[in-house]
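Much of what follows relies on a compact textual record of a protein's fold. Think of the row as the fold of the chain written in a discrete alphabet. An example makes this concrete, so a full record is given next.


***
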Amino acid sequence: MSGLLPTTTDAGSDQEGELRTLCLDSDDAGELLSSLSSDTARDILSALHEQPATASEVAGRADTSLQNARHHLDNLEEAGLIRVADTRYSQKGREMNVYAPSEDPMVVFVGNEDHKRSFLDSLRGLVTAVGLLALVSVLVQRLIATDAVGADALPRMADGAGAGAGAPLAVPPGAVFFAGGLLVVLIALAWRRWQRVSEPTV
């Protein structure tokens, strides 16, 4: 009978849900911080981010007892940090829950609702800017690759004596464009943040 029951799982540790934001003063944030107050709980959460596991497997990875592992798993689940992603069966046919990280990534911030809106606006702006920058970088890379004719079309570095052509540049033009653009975006965000902080309060 046990041969007909699934003993493996397809559950993954990817977090593809919507971003959750918690104010540090909220009850949910307090429950979250309480669930992570011990080293064992943090070890368990880290282990589940590497690979989903059952309670017994978690106990082995965290080097703790099964009872203690279940205690921390319950707390982490109540705090919304992990979930029961699947069910599988032991060789004896016993049902076991498979735990994995919550599908929703989470950010805890300090401040009020105004700070929350400001943070989310900045985060959305950063994600949008980086996404557009990555897209343009790919287009730049393809454009240069299309115009290049073999390896001779790549820029070359002269050797120390200045004679002859050196090896082709190892950094792709698209990567250079992306790095430069990302630096500009970060500087712009830092400047915007500094302006908000330096504004006099009424």
The longest strand covers residues 82-89. The beta strands are 20-23, 82-89, 95-101, 106-109, 156-158, 165-168. DSSP finds six helices and six strands in the chain.
